[in-house]
Structure formats: structure tokens, C-alpha cells
Amino acid sequence: MYMKQLFVVCFFIATTLSSFSQKNNSITFERYVQNALQAWKTPGLSVVVVKDGKVVYKNGFGVTELGKQNPFTTSTLSICASTTKAMTAVCMGMLVDEGKIKWDDKVSDVYPALKLSDDYASSQLTIRDLLTHNAGLGNADWFWVLGMNVDTIINRMRLLQPAYSFRSSFIYQNLMYMIAGEVIHKISGKTYDDFIKERLFAPLGMTHTYANYSLSANEPSHITPHFMYDDSVVKPIRFIEAKGIDAAGGVWSCADDISKWVMFMLDSATVNGKKLLKTETYNELFKPQVMVTEDQFYPTQQITKPHWKTYGLGWFQEDYRGSMLQFHTGSLDGAVAITGLIPDQHFGVYIFGNRDHTELRHALMYKAIDFWCFNDNSRDWSMEFFALYKKIKEDAKKKETEKEAKRVLNTIPPVEMSGYEGKYKNETFGNAEIVFHNDSLWLKYPNNLTLHLTHWNNNTFVGKYTYEWYDKSFIQFSLDESGKVSQFEMDGLVYKKE
């Protein structure tokens, strides 16, 4: 009897201390977030932390839009962006479990519409390759900026020149995840949007999670994206929905719902006692698939100093304090997300934010890991990362200043302004037009993306986007033997005059 009473007392004390510790962690973490929000000038965010199968912390901070009083709550919808990729990998895994496809099946056998400029890559590309960023393609998000639809993008992927030889390196890009969504459609007979809703969101009870913004339009609370101008002023910007990006980064969710996704992934893809993936398929998601090069990893590596960096199926991977950290960021114009899992610690965190590339997300991920996995509050990640990214910006400004110093002042264009007018074409990315209007040159694309061109030096102009949060681009014109404008180059793309 005495031993039984002693056990009850000890259990009560342990439970009470654990509860006190969790509450203390939550209070300390909350204060940390509130202070960090001010430093990073982030209007709002939400955080959810899962430990040992339970939500141990969940809260919203700030507002959904500056100048308005709507709070950023745990039910506020925000963009998952590229954290969607892990969800797409799970959907593909379900088809693998059903025997409808294998990870190493050739894409050409199941989706022959995809052709690459490299015939060998086209013939050998596998389902696994769609999810690991090593197929040879560089970043080609310009397709979406120009508003092209999926069919047009797929047709033009054959024109993209490889950035490196097939499977020899790693460059993060979105096109192959778009193809993964199309493969899911082809194999299952359901669109990607319907498949992920029926096979993932519904079983997990994620009733406020959607495959794209349009599907979420009736929800009462959405974030407004924000951008920081001149490193000081944060302003709201309009959200521009990219069509066809759903499988690569289109999902919208909220902290209340995304907690279910985090618990699902920490519980071996199990919900309500039912496994939605076989154990071997679940393990494959977290298995290192490719090495990540230094220049393709996050700048945070300068401080966290991981010993290795890999990519699984929808997850970046590194070592942190002796554990394997599975994580991924998401970024679209004016909004961010980040998720981090340490399965061995039964720990997960997910963060939404409504300011463009607010790297506060990284700081809060590592802070949450320190708090709930190691009971450690000694490191100020916000301060360290703030200093890191401040230096990165300063270095970029320095390079810009150096470029400006090389500019030869008081030059004039070699031809009359009207001589630049005309229609131009890039075989891969389509048409553009230069218009001379009101004594100014304008570069226009078919989806109304427009740049105002100002003469910079000789035959070079600087283009300022009408999307004011876009960085400027330099446009270099070339002349033919007769002295007439023949083409322009912008951001490495050549458009020839028709």
C-alpha cells in the first residue's frame, strides 16, 4: 500500500513539474516572439508547437494587415508556399502504396507529355527525381511571373537549357513539383486539388486547408502580404495568385489545421489509429536522397554550422544538437512559412508570417527546438540571425554601389528612343514589347507585367517594375551591323526583336 501511495505521489509531482515547465516555456517563448516581431518589423504571425503527440503551444501575434485591427490568430489562413512540397510527396507515396506507381518508375512511361532538352534526362527521369531538385533544371519561376498556364509551361520545358548535368548537382526549383502534381492527376484520375483534399486534408480533419487561394476565398480571415521598403518601411502589397503552382507551393492553411499535419507526420503518417502510408514509404520521405550544395542551402548555416546538408522527399535535412532536423521554408511575395520536425524527439513546429522573407521564422524554429527539446533558453537566435541577414543586405548594397561607381555618367542612348520600340521574342518565355509613350520607354509582357525603363549607361537601361516590391532589372540592348536595335537581355534572358 505504501509503495502504491508513494508511486501516486511521485507521479503527481512529476506531472505537476512537467505542466509547470511547459507553462513556463510557453510564457517565455511568447515574450520572446513579441520582442522579436518588433525587431523584424513583421506585422503578424502564428506558431504551433507539437511535442510527444500533443499541441504544447499555439498562438497568433500581431495583425493580418497593417493599419487595420484584425488580429492574426490561429485560425487566420496563410500561405504554406513551398512547405506544400512535403504534402505532395505524401500524396505520391499513397499512390506508391497502392501499387499504381513506383518511386523509380520512369516519368516518360507514365507522363510522356514531359520532354526536356536533354534526351537522356527525359528518358531516365524518375518519379523520385521529380521530388529531389537534381534533374538538371535551374530556377524557372519566370514562367509563373509571366502568368503562363500549366500546359504552356510543360510544352516549353523542353526549351530550357540544363543548368548542370542530370543528377550531378542540386538546384532548388518548382517545375518538377508541378509535374508531380500532374502525375498524381494522371495516375489517380483526380486533379491534384481534389486528391490532396480527399486523401490528406479530409482524413486529418483539416477542414480549413485548401490547395490554393481561390478555393479558400470564403474563409473569414486571411493574411495580407507585406513588403519592407528601404529596410525600414513595411507596407501591404496585393496577393498575386500563380496558376498551376498548387503542388509546388499553393496550399493555404492556418495554425489550428496545420497542427494536425505536424502531428500526422510525427506519428508515422497515422491519424486516429489508421496509417495513411506504409512504414517503408513513410521512411522514404525522410531518407536523405541528394546532397545539397553550399550555395543552395540557407544562410543560417553560417551560424548553425551543420556537418551535413541533404534533401529528402520534400524536406531539407541537417544535423542540429545531435539530432536529425527535417525542415522546409515557404516563400511567396509578401508571406512566409517554415516547418521543422525532429522525429526522434517527437517534436514539430510550424510558423506562418505575413512579411516578405522575414527570417524571424528561422529564429523561432530553432528557439522552439531549444525550449521544448533541450530546455535551453541561452541563445538569442533572433539577434544572431538579424545580424546575419543585415550583413547580407549590406553586402548586396555594397555590390550595387560598386556597380553604380563603374557607371559612365552623362552618356546618351546610341539610337533614338523610338528605335527601341517593337515586338521582341524569347523562344522559351514568349513575347515582350517595348513601347515609347509620354517620353518614356516601357517594357511590357502579355500578362500586363510592366517595367518603366530609365536610361542608365550607353545602351543599358534600368527597369522598375509596376509591382513596386519587385527588385529592379537591368536591360542591355544590342545593335545589329546597320546600327538598329536587334535584341535585349534581361536577367540572363535574351529577347530578339522581330
What key attributes describe this structure?
Beta-lactamase; 2 domains; alpha+beta; eight-stranded antiparallel β-barrel; eight-stranded antiparallel β-sheet; Lipocalin; 498 residues
What does this structure look like?
With 498 residues, the chain is of the alpha+beta class. It has 2 domains: 34-396, DD-peptidase/beta-lactamase superfamily (Beta-lactamase, 3-Layer(aba) Sandwich), CATH 3.40.710.10; 417-497, Lipocalin (Beta Barrel), CATH 2.40.128. It is 34% helix and 24% strand. It has helices spanning 2-40, 84-97, 107-110, 119-124, 142-145, 150-156, 175-188, 192-204, 246-249, 255-266, 279-286, 301-304, 360-374, 381-405, and strands at 44-51, 54-62, 78-79, 226-229, 233-236, 252-253, 270-271, 274-275, 290-291, 309-311, 316-320, 323-332, 335-342, 347-353, 422-426, 430-437, 440-444, 450-457, 460-465, 473-479, 485-490, 493-497. The strands form 5 sheets. It has an 8-stranded antiparallel sheet with strand order 2-1-14-13-12-11-10-9, with helices on both faces. The chain has an 8-stranded antiparallel beta barrel with strand order 15-16-17-18-19-20-21-22. Strand 7 and strand 8 form a beta hairpin. Helix 1 packs antiparallel against helix 13 (360-374). The longest helix has 39 residues, at 2-40.
Domain unit count: 2
| CATH T-level topology of the largest domain | Beta-lactamase
Radius of gyration: 25 Å
Content-based structural category:
alpha+beta
**Which consecutive residue ranges, at least 5 long each, have pLDDT under 50?**
6-20
What is the CATH H-level superfamily of the largest domain?
DD-peptidase/beta-lactamase superfamily
First-to-last CA distance = 94 Å
- Strand elements, count: 22
- In DSSP terms (H or I, runs of 4 or more residues), the helix count works out at 14
CATH class of the largest domain: Alpha Beta
